[in-house]
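Good morning,

Both structures are done.
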Amino acid sequence: MEFEAIIGLEVHAELSTKTKIYCGCTTEFGGEQNTHCCPVCMGLPGALPVLNKEVVTYAMKAGLALNCEINKETYMARKNYFYPDCPKNYQITQDETPLCTNGYIEITTDEGVKRIGIQRIHIEEDAGKALHREDGTYVDFNRSGVPLIEIVSKPDMRTPQEAKMYLENLKAILQYTEVSDCKMEEGSLRCDANVSVRPKGSTEFGVKTEIKNMNSFKAVEKAIEYEIKRQIEAIKRGEKIVQETRRWDEAKGETVVMRSKEEAHDYRYFPEPDMVYLVVDDAWIENVKNTLPELPDKKRARYISEYGLPEYDASILTSSKALAVYFEDVVKEGASPKDASNWIMGEVLRTLNDREMSIEDIKVQPKHLAKLIELINNGTITGTIAKKVFKDMFESGDDPEKIVKEKGMVQISDENAIRDIVNKVLDENPQSVADYKAGKTKAMGFIVGQVMKASKGKANPQLVNKLVEEELQKR
């Protein structure tokens, strides 16, 4: 029997507002424990919440960018649960009336474009953070009351790869709109996955498990992959899948049971009595719509049509806002879009990946990368030398012109000087000359390579090819 997976994702994104959702405390990450809090976010008796308007604006911005409908009248609700990091013993969230509904994200699969539905986006407050130490468990309430949106997808994904693509597109959209910085390492983007399996062809859903504790998109992909396999093997052994919450254990590479899954009624939701209804009018929605930037899909299409870039290049360059900004800045500094794309897709990203760095960390200024490209195009340096110059630029952040002058890397374009090197190489490689004369054209490529090596990569490649051919004909 063949099985298929049903995957839905719940993503929590911290909003980039300066203050918390119901009080004026800062949302800044870090700080000494329990210094970014007040009676409201600590849930002290008599303290009343006041909704931060910016939170609603940010949430609507995310909803509109994700093709959602905005519900014009909603209310906040209390979700009751008892845990040390929840100071009020309830969380103020939205239950039956989410702010945004019926959206979607498109991903590109091997079968073409696939639309993943977004069921709802609601606003809520974050909890504090439990710190487990040898001498006990401590609680830091700095994060308590930080505004979140929870983005709940429909169960439209069928493979771990589709889930990863959905997350990558979602992250890009949230970054482009500046709704969230999406830093998973700081906890500002967190993802839970709901996974079930069913026989292929069946229309009924299987029993789902929820997976938590995934701190990277790669971890999400691996955890879902493991859970699908675990459930299929259990069914084949005649076991029943139990609805439960599991956590991803990165070290073991497996999901581990945390607790039995709570149902909605376990939280005893009811409308928040300390807050009025939230009413959103058309003018507010229109104002938010007008602040939406060019989103990744449109930017990708523009790079293809306006700059003539291949679809793959355009997809990579628009995959993060910072990378797209860097590319556009290099183009603004005078580099052709194709040259800028080639260098960013090649040396820049390769070096960043090798160092496990992101584009935000790079020392090479866009104007300096554009100047390096210009030095190649005007014949000052060769492509080979340019790669060496880039290595220096990456370490120091220096101007490429300065590096080229200091290290004597200027291209040799003197015909007589290059001809001398060519003849020396030909004298040293009589067998290659004989091979060329015998019709083995590959021998010429070897000779050209030896000339470039002898000139330490500084000889003008076009002149080298021309002079090698000329001297070979004479022999």
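Second structure follows.
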Amino acid sequence: MTEQRFRVGIVGLEPGRGWAARAHVPALRALSDSYEIVGVANTSLASAQRAAAALGLPRAFKDVAELVSAPEVDIVTVTVKVPHHLEVVKAAIEAGKHVYCEWPLGNGLAEAEELAELAKAKSLLGVVGTQARVSPEIEYLKQLITDGFVGEVLSTTIVARGGGWGGSIAQKKSDAYMLDRAAGATMLTIPVGHTLAALTDVLGEVVQLSSVLATRRSTALAVDTGERLPMSAPDQVLVSGILSGGAPVSIHYRGGMARDGDGFFWEINGTAGDIRVSGPFGHTQFVSLSLKGARGDEKTFQPLEVPASYRTGWPEDMAPGNVARIYGRMAHDLREGTRTAPSFEDAVGVHRVIASIERAAEHVSRT
């Protein structure tokens, strides 16, 4: 018997660049037994028509309202900028559609809570794109911890580079909004948020924390225009706290890229051993990570190769591969009534940690 194929309409698709074109379209096409892309809506009909033509999509919708009300759309994928998530996701839910929304779910905790409550009230599936949670390296790391590779976790530390927020942006039109703390697409909300989602899946919830948020660069250069633009988003994020199992946690994200391409370091220290996770920079949702471990009296760390079973059947490229893994879980959830994909409720949990980080940093700044 042929399983149902879910029909997807994408809001916010720019061919040649942008996350939807880079990750969502190839992910959905890799899952052609479960999904088909029926069309796109952008800021204008002309923009949607260009995207549809460039990517070979059947339909260009004139606007979001037309897409979410279309009977041939089962799922609305939302890949627009964060300040527009609330209005687009609300429109989709109110039209009775399931939603895959990129992370962050909302511009702040209140918006995320509103969307999660709305999806629950309508009995619709809301999935959020915290892709690091389903990456093969994080999934295998979680299994290693569960199997007792390090024994009881004593502490954990992350030091990482945020990639962006390092004093320059590539394009003013597409990237400048990330410099504005109020827009909700900052180093704290994006790479730190993705990594927090993965960390809590592996080691448990953050139950107590203190923090410092600092903006050490007041401007950033737009490379394409040569302009200096104001920057209010933090380029330094420091968090220390306690996990639910009692282990201390320390996180420091710095804006920009590492000089040597080694911009992510995560160590988990335990009673029986240690694991180190490394990568080029701190966007754990789409970078390749490597794992090393040592146990007992071992003096050197040895590679911990992720078993092939964690990668088989998925796109090799990490960006569409991790997005495809979430879509795979979403299809299973829709068919079986399960809840295996990162949900809006899961997103609210991460938003709550971020809100706690912001509140704690405000307390520090006032003292």
